């Protein structure tokens, strides 16, 4: 069975799930086989408390805005969120933060934790720090690194951040996916014949054999190098 992946983000009233802060926005985008599906869950949530000015400056959500959107309290949507996440791999940037808030909200309702829902968590912040040690690993920095357009990101909204994170995650894992033999070219996806070298599979890696035309071009290049060609001298020694 194909593993469901969900690109996930939340917005909150503050930084501390264990000290009275609450979740105010949830977004999750489903991805299967590295393709986004039409299964999306995006909810605004009333925190049942005040909204600190500092938090509103980050995500643009005030209590008045949430009430204008008829945002329900988490108790009315928590089961829906839990059912959406159940058994999926969650792709989250700075996962400790979002998982902490979701677990806090679930516990208030008597619902299972993220772990108990059978979810695997992949933290793209940890991935980025391992891939680019000593460099900035924020979502903005990764968008810049992978040329992901973030011009529509006025505030740190959960939905737009999920969309950006989805593109960043695909870019971060593209090389690994290619090595596992899972990627297809545009021609392959369209069912067109490929005028490229033959692919030989060895284990789970792809070895691309040179075509006759490429081999001929290589020999011509070696001819142009003349008698001092190191490549041919080495080949004769090996023979």
TrEMBL record:
Catalytic activity, reaction form: DNA(n) + a 2'-deoxyribonucleoside 5'-triphosphate = DNA(n+1) + diphosphate
Keywords from the UniProt entry: DNA replication, DNA-directed DNA polymerase, Exonuclease, Hydrolase, Magnesium, Manganese, Metal-binding, Nuclease, Nucleotidyltransferase, Transferase
InterPro entries noted in UniProt: DnaQ, DnaQ_proteo, Ribonucl_H, RNaseH-like_sf, RNaseH_sf
Domain Exonuclease: 4-178
EC number: 2.7.7.7
Cofactor(s) this protein cannot do without: Mn(2+); Mg(2+)
Reported function: DNA polymerase III is a complex, multichain enzyme responsible for most of the replicative synthesis in bacteria. The epsilon subunit contain the editing function and is a proofreading 3'-5' exonuclease.
Record protein name field: DNA polymerase III subunit epsilon
Organism: Neisseria lisongii
Originating gene: dnaQ
């Amino acid at each position: 069975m194909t593993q469901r992946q969900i690109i996930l983000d939340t917005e909150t009233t503050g930084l501390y799930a264990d000290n009275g802060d609450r979740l105010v926005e949830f977004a999750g985008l489903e991805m299967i086989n590295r393709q986004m599906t039409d299964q999306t869950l995006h909810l605004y949530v009333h925190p049942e408390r005040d909204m600190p000015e500092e938090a509103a400056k980050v995500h643009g959500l005030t209590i008045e805005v949430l009430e204008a959107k008829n945002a329900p309290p988490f108790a009315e949507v928590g089961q829906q969120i839990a059912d959406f996440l159940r058994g999926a791999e969650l792709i989250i940037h700075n996962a400790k933060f979002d998982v902490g808030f979701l677990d806090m909200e679930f516990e208030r309702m008597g619902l299972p934790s993220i772990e108990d829902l059978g979810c695997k968590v992949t933290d793209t912040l940890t991935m980025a720090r391992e891939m680019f040690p000593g460099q900035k690993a924020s979502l903005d920095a990764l968008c810049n690194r992978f040329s992901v357009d973030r011009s529509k990101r006025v505030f740190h909204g959960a939905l737009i951040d999920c969309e950006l994170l989805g593109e960043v995650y695909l870019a971060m894992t593209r090389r690994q996916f290619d090595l596992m033999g899972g990627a297809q070219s545009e021609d392959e996806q369209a069912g067109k014949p490929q005028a490229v070298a033959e692919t030989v599979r060895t284990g789970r890696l792809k070895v691309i054999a040179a075509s006759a035309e490429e081999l001929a071009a290589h020999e011509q290049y070696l001819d142009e190098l003349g008698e001092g060609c190191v490549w041919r001298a080495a080949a004769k020694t090996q023979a």
